[in-house]
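The authors assume throughout that readers already know how a fold can be written as discrete tokens. What matters is that the chain and its backbone geometry are given together, residue for residue. A single example would do more here than another paragraph of explanation. For illustration, here is how one protein appears when written out as sequence plus structure tokens.
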Amino acid sequence: MSLSNYIAGTLSFYVLRNPDLDRELINDYAPYSSSISIFEYHIAPNGDIANQLNDAAAIETTWQRRVTPLATITNLTSGGFSTEIVHQVLNNPTARTNLVNNIYDLVSTRGYGGVTIDFEQVSAADRDLFTGFLRQLRDRLQAGGYVLTIAVPAKTSDNIPWLRGYDYGGIGAVVNYMFIMAYDWHHAGSEPGPVAPITEIRRTIEFTIAQVPSRKIIIGVPLYGYDWIIPYQPGTVASAISNQNAIERAMRYQAPIQYSAEYQSPFFRYSDQQGRTHEVWFEGVRSMSRKMQIVREYRLQAIGAWQLTLAEGHHHHHH
């Protein structure tokens, strides 16, 4: 039984591959999602949508499975998430209205059920403008019966300087759902450790429910882990690994999987062919169940998933 069976995700992200694979994967994952957010459209500084996607098959398949497809709108550029592009759009009323209209046109012409706004690294200076933009977009989408979801970085307090751009209370009052990216506390560029420790997730939830209606909150969980070489050398980069592949790797190297009671997260160590020691942290059935328990405990909307194409590793490529 694969891990996706445990993910009763309200919102799952799906990164487009090609129409045939998109149909196949979405058919596989639809039973575990009520919406699938398709990745990803980019914005331009003048409020235009900067790219086109071959998303027709994915949208059609999602609706056929009685799941709502959402368009993911990001501030991604070739150099990563751009603080500057968001700043330019938000500070120019013409560009901002243009973006709202373009998003509405995209959703209505492509046949989406709504959007997910995934603007990352929004600056503290743009905090109120960002909330204002979401309100303007919500009003436009609501008139057409479309849903507005936002993906936000996990916050445990309002005193974290680089997350000041996200006014949880203001955003939560506007959007239909808030998908919290509750992962990457440890990541490819960090020292080894749990990717989504329950300790940090609990702190994030407690901070959020003080400001946002709990029924709007979706806790995003990772469908992957990381494989680090230890002892950790700063500047080295760990490789991402699907949860399924992590379990297979532990079996291949006959490494006993351990479980951190503190972080509610599985991990193991193994020695590779070159004699280097590795440490792997990932999500297993037990850690996923624990996350679902905490979501129920706080009466949140659900858990969500980033992202479906990472869930199973690469077995789909062998068909």
In short: Residues 1-6, 313-319 have pLDDT under 50 and may be disordered. The first strand starts at residue 9 and ends at 15. The chain is about 35% helix and 25% strand. The longest helix spans residues 93-110.
